[in-house]
Amino acid sequence: MKQLLLVFVGGGFGSVLRFVIGKYLNSTTTGIPYGTFAANIIGSLLIGVILGLAAKNDTLTQNQTLLLATGFCGGFTTFSTFAYENHLFLKSGDFTSFAIYTIASFVIGFLAVFLGLFLVK
Q1: With contact defined as beta carbons under 8 Å apart, do 101 and 37 qualify?
Q2: What is the mean pLDDT of residues 77-95?
């Protein structure tokens, strides 16, 4: 029960922070989702750091990892919104934005995880 509460609390904080970032960074004029992109990249970096710390000499407890990685990063990052925004690009015929957003999100997201893991070595 305690673990469920930790994931719930972490996810709530992550979701609220993602909402705030999206509200201020997503562009309503150009339709480019800078906020979602930023949240996903920052979340990827954070999960790399968090899981790197958890693996390094048990620096984080299992409960801290659940709160931060599963809860916070899970609520902060968003694949569903990313997929929906790509749907909107395709629906509007903006194939260039679709390609750039998709490729940049995957490549930079993976690099951010690797960077986070590298930073805690």
Answers
A1: yes
A2: 96
pTM, 2 dp: 0.92
- Ramachandran class of 60: left when φ > 0, alpha when ψ lies in -120 to 50, beta otherwise: beta
Which contacts (CB < 8 Å, 24+ apart) does range 25-31 have? Answer: 31/88, 31/89, 31/92, 31/94, 31/97
Asked whether 16 and 78 are in contact (CB, 8 A), the reply is: no
- Distance (Å, whole) CA 2 – CA 9: 11
Q: What is the pLDDT of residues 52-76, one digit of tens each?
A: 999 988 889 999 999 999 999 999 9
* Cα 65 to Cα 76: distance, rounded to the nearest angstrom: 15
**Element at 116 (helix H, strand E):** helix 95-119
Q: Give SS3 for 44.
A: helix
Structural domain boundaries, residue 22: 2-119
Domain count, the chain: 1
